[in-house]
Amino acid sequence: MTPGGRHFYADLANTRFVGKRDLKRGTSVASIDLGNVLDKAWADKSVPEVLSAPVSALKGVSDRQGELLNEAFGIKTVADLAKLKYVGWAQALAALDAAK
Is the model's pLDDT at 91 over the cut of 70? Predict the structure, then answer.
């Protein structure tokens, strides 16, 4: 987490959280500023709490859209959405396109 913000880094190869210093060693990381992706009510929660939250905790996702995701794919939580195979497929396709 960075000072003054709720910014996390995750080592994608080992699926563990890492600090900024690991960036200097060339580790493949993802980062996210929770304040930019979560509704204000969820921005101060821990990552495990956010993963257990309804998808409407994500900024821009309404309660109704969360209900539709549940109806269509059985998605109830942010973790469920992250595990949705179609999301993974779309991310892999985008990564392949970006690597060309």
Answer: yes
